[in-house]
Amino acid sequence: MTYRFILFEVTQGVAKITLNRAEVLNSIHAAMSGELQDALTRATRDSETRTLLITGAGRGFCAGQDLDEVRPGSSVKDFAAHARKVYTPLVKGLRTIAKPIVCAVNGVAAGAGANLALACDLVLAAEEASFVQAFAKIGLVPDTGGSFFLPRLVGLARATALTMLGEKISATQAAEIGLIHRACPAATLLEDATKLATHLATQPTFGLGLTKQLLNASLVNDLDAQLELEAELQGAAGRSADYAEGVAAFLAKRKPSFTGR
Ligand code: LHQ
């Protein structure tokens, strides 16, 4: 697939996806979501890719749904169908790819754009960036996984305030309340995020994928089920080439060289 609304490049094991509709703060329409879904599949299948990095072009990260596409009277009449087609596959893709995903939030992240960022594994944001659950401002409800992840990330009281008041919070505040991993100066955001993604691309990818599976499951499992899954996946990790390499390197007092398998 040729991309018109995103950029995609793989460097040093990192697949970088840039949302690229800067003139509308990278807001998402169906065609752009189709491209993103294709890029996620590509990054999943590409054995060279061991980490993903998602960011936005221009001054915004993503302003959520392109409101022009869903304006009253437009051809998009059924928002349930639209959400299932445009957003659900993105969230499922981000959460189930067995590779770490770093998100570099370069500017405002609103509505579905904020929640896409929150579905990534490690979120870095420029200090000047902001997060806003914009849905309530236009009579909609949080989607793109927001109603699932927000209470789990920051607790019910804060999730309620964020979604019902729809107030913008800064990246610094977002880091303070545990919504994101860290805020960094705008001037170094992309460099910091690339460094982190490139580091992760040298780590035991198979084990990191299993770790992600465990964290996903922990959001819904009870302790017994989670302990059982940990045991099962530890069995799989213990059979990996990277475990053999990790232990051999530790015992030989040298740096490990992980292949990701
Ligand atoms: C935009 C957008 C945008 C189009 C800025 N669309 N043009 C929805 C519907 C159906 C089913 C499923 O799910 C969803 C999910 C959702 O995501 S609903 C929430 C949709 N998003 C919003 O409500 C956010 C709307 N945008 C804003 O509130 C502001 O633009 C923010 C706070 C993001 C940024 O404010 P500013 O920094 O002041 O920028 P701006 O408002 O001046 O925007 C810059 C340009 O981008 C402007 O165009 P213009 O031609 O005047 O320069 C905006 O019209 C355009 N833009 N967001 N979502």
Q: What does this 3D model show about the protein?
A:
The chain is α/β, with parallel strands linked by helices and 261 residues long. Helices cover 45% and strands 16% of the residues. The strands form 2 sheets. The chain has a 6-stranded mixed beta sheet with strand order 1-2-3-5-7-10, sandwiched between helices. A hairpin with a 2-residue loop joins strand 1 and strand 2. Helix 5 crosses helix 6 and helix 9 (205-218) packs antiparallel against helix 10 (223-238). It is globular. The relative contact order is 0.12.
What is the overall number of helices?
Answer: 11
Contiguous low-pLDDT stretches (5 residues minimum) are: none
Mean pLDDT: 98
Characterize the quaternary organization of these chains: single chain
Order of helices and strands: EEHEEHHEEHEEHHEHEHHHH
Measured as a percent range, the helix fraction is: 40-55%
Strand order of the largest sheet: 1-2-3-5-7-10
Number of strands: 10
β-strand amount:
15-25%
Query: Can you summarize the main beta sheet?
Result: 6 strands, mixed
End-to-end span in angstroms?
Answer: 28 Å
Q: What small-molecule ligands were found?
A: ligand LHQ
* SS content category: alpha/beta
Which radius of gyration do the C-alpha atoms yield?
19 Å
Basic shape: globular
Short précis:
With about 260 residues, this protein is α/β, with parallel strands linked by helices.
